[in-house]
C-alpha cells in the first residue's frame, strides 16, 4: 500500500504550481506524436540519394494521406521546440537550475539531442536546401579532427551521408527516450 501511495496518490509539488508546468507533459506528447508519424513516414522513404527526393514526392502526391503525415511531422517538430523553449523559460524563471541541477543538465542534453535530430531530419528530403544545409552545418564542424569524415562517410556530402543521417535520425529519439528522459524525470 505504501508503494501505491508513494507513486500514485501523493506527489510533492511546488507551491507555485500553475498551468505553465504542463509544457513538460506537452513536450512528451508531441515527442510521441513525432515518433508515430516518423515511423509511418519511414515505411515509404528511400535513403538512396538518387531516390530520396522522389520518394518524398511520391509520399506527398500519391500515397493516401501521405502529405498529412509529412506536414504533421514537420509542424509537430516546430511545436516540440516551442514547448521545450516555454518549458525551459519556466525553469529559468523559477531558478530550477540552481536546485535541480541534474534535471536541468539532463534537460539541456535532451534539448541538444533534439536539435541534432531535427537537423538530421531536415536533410532527409534531399532537396537543394537540405543538401546545402547539410554541407554548411557539417563544414561548421570541420575544426574538430576526424569528426566530419566519420559523420559524412567521406570528405563531402554524398549518398553515404544521407544513409547515415537517416539511421541517426531514426535512432537518436530512442536514445533520448531511453537514457536522458528517464534521468530527467527521475530528478524532477
From TrEMBL:
Keywords assigned: Membrane, Transmembrane, Transmembrane helix
Annotated PROSITE patterns: CYTB_NTER (PS51002)
Ranges that cross the membrane: 21-43, 69-87, 99-124, 130-153, 165-187
Molecular function per GO: oxidoreductase activity; quinol-cytochrome-c reductase activity
Residues of the Cytochrome b/b6 N-terminal region profile domain: 1-188
Superkingdom as given in the UniProt entry: Eukaryota
CDD domains with a match to the protein in the record: Cytochrome_b_N
Annotated Pfam families: Cytochrome_B (PF00033)
GO biological process: mitochondrial electron transport, ubiquinol to cytochrome c
GO cellular component, one term: mitochondrion
Database matches in PANTHER family: CYTOCHROME B
Name of the protein described by the UniProt record: Cytochrome b/b6 N-terminal region profile domain-containing protein
Protein's organism: Besnoitia besnoiti
Organism lineage string: Eukaryota, Sar, Alveolata, Apicomplexa, Conoidasida
